[in-house]
């Protein structure tokens, strides 16, 4: 393996292990900034050593061990600095010994899942919800500020500012940086659920990069959702979110063609849908209902996904029910993206003219003017109304606004085929 290949391997392994490194180090050091710094130092060490010694048999373990050694060295330097203030020749105090041992033990303390623990920790009540979500999506989801900004329909500087402020607030010594236990968890749950679902969404419909789907993000969100469901089995919205993700994930194998292009829902081969995941998702919806969560936002979204899962063919989809569910969700959680999805569903249930009328609402059009899916939805309605030139313009604009290569190619194809 040449040096270029080794460097690429280092970067790939680090990208995959970055969140686990940061989660474990943040838990033991109590500092997100320090955890990120230690992780970067481990990457730098790998870039120096691996080209000389070769890629280790367990590259992820090597990175973690390197980061831990740097954490231990830093802790020892701090202990030494404190000791230097005492009289020369005094032995280390009992308290210092205990502190050092506790630190070492903490590096390997298994609390169940470091990533989920860090999501709960970062969802601290002292942070506003928007800062909690931005910080955790960056650290745990590994999403870029641009990807987070697109998820929230806002600018990158705004997201960067939220992350910086959140880190600064959590660095305050007066704030206990620790994993919440018992009754401390429910107040943070809504933020935790939001982060897990946004990680899943970025995997299911990637907003940037060459691929339409980032399956590893979906699988990571599912893993976190399953751990959370076992941790909080009486929470209806936890069961609902897991059900929603399982039903959505059932379609991953049918969403892209061999050349990487997106396959829209009407053209997907439903034989490729994972029936086990669908069954588990439907069972999860029933479990959420039994827990009294039939009207929660994630339960409504799970019901929406179930409408597609139950339809044997696209033509038999119950669009009237989907439109009604989106109406309920819009009343519960007003959002321009929910309004967009409702308009699409109305367009399918009542015809493209009805959908287009909702899409061309002045407020919605203004809010979503730079949102590629909005213009794609307009293009679809216009094409079905045989207004081909306008549809071509809408699809072309949607393609120009998309940050995802596969989605852009798909939209450009739609524009070329108009008329």
From TrEMBL:
Gene Ontology molecular functions: DNA binding; sigma factor activity
- Indicate what this protein is called per its UniProt record: RNA polymerase sigma factor (Sigma-70 family)
Domain RNA polymerase sigma-70 region, residue spans: 20-78
Q: Which residues form the RNA polymerase sigma factor 70 region 4 type domain?
A: 120-170
A GO BP entry is: DNA-templated transcription initiation
In this chain the DUF6596 domain maps to 188-288
Instruction: Give the organism the record lists.
Output: Gellertiella hungarica
Q: Sorted alphabetically, which InterPro entries does this protein's record hold?
A: DUF6596, RNA_pol_sigma-70_dom, RNA_pol_sigma70_r2, RNA_pol_sigma70_r4_t2, RNA_pol_sigma_r2, RNA_pol_sigma_r3/r4-like, WH-like_DNA-bd_sf
So which domain of life are we looking at? Bacteria
